[in-house]
Amino acid sequence: MKNKYRILKIAITVIILGFLLSFSLKKFSGQKITDEKISVKMNEKTPVYFIDEKDIKQIVIKENPSGKVGDLNIPELEKKITALSAVDSANVYLNLNGKLHLDIKQRVPVFRLNYNGKDFYVDEKGTEFPISKTYSHSCMLVTGDVKKEEYEKLGELVSKIDKDDFSKKYFIGISKHKDSYYLLTSEGNYKVEIGDLDHIDFKVKGFKTFVEKFLIFQDSQKYSMVSVKYDNQIVTTLNPYFKENDSILKAGHKDLAKTPVAAAPVKKEEVKAKTAEKKTASAKPKESVKPKTAVKPKEKKKTHEKKPAVKPKTKAKVKIE
Which helix (H) or strand (E) holds 57? Predict the structure, then answer.
């Protein structure tokens, strides 16, 4: 009996509402829909401005040229508004006072994709929609050959970056090369290689640890890439254009530089010593030639003086050696 009473009560309520609705439609069917009688509400959590109240009102006027309430086709109006690329859903209805209500939810871009020279937005559902000529939404820029089946996972990654203060500070873009994803950073010129879109939390946590315990004490220009795609491992690639590179490489360059520098002076000293010996040897005989022509008897004494002069030359050679 209770169930029958409930069913009867619901039926009576529906009949009364239907009667009131038909009565109100008849009452206001001849009235025109003015701007004051059109209420447009945007229900998205994140404010976006791809369409505004003015755009919606123009569609209402276009779909109802007479402007009368009785001539308005509400289901068709809903379809026209929902067909807009930036609209996710629309709910259109008339209240008992003849006022037209339009509750509209716009698409909120999660990231902006650039591929083959084309730009478009992608929302959290993985739906593509074109960019606007009048409004640009601030969101993560993604480049590369991203497949449609990867949109949702990529959207999850961007959402996690936006919610984390550390990630939001460091990561300013995402690129895809071949089958690997890279996070572009605001610090330095290095990229963070994450590989695929699996285990994102673990990979970002690994990079955060690397920055806080190691990279913070070094110059951010030192590396060209930091890879966190491997399990429990971080692999870095040095920047070849960084002046002060790894200490091991600097030590290696110094050792190589020492070898030619040390060999060159020895050769020069030996050459100088030999040339000096030749000059002294050639100079002394010239001095002895003049006395020979002047006084012939003193030739024997001068030849005896030459012999002890040979001994210091051998000592000089030993010293050089």
Answer: helix 53-63
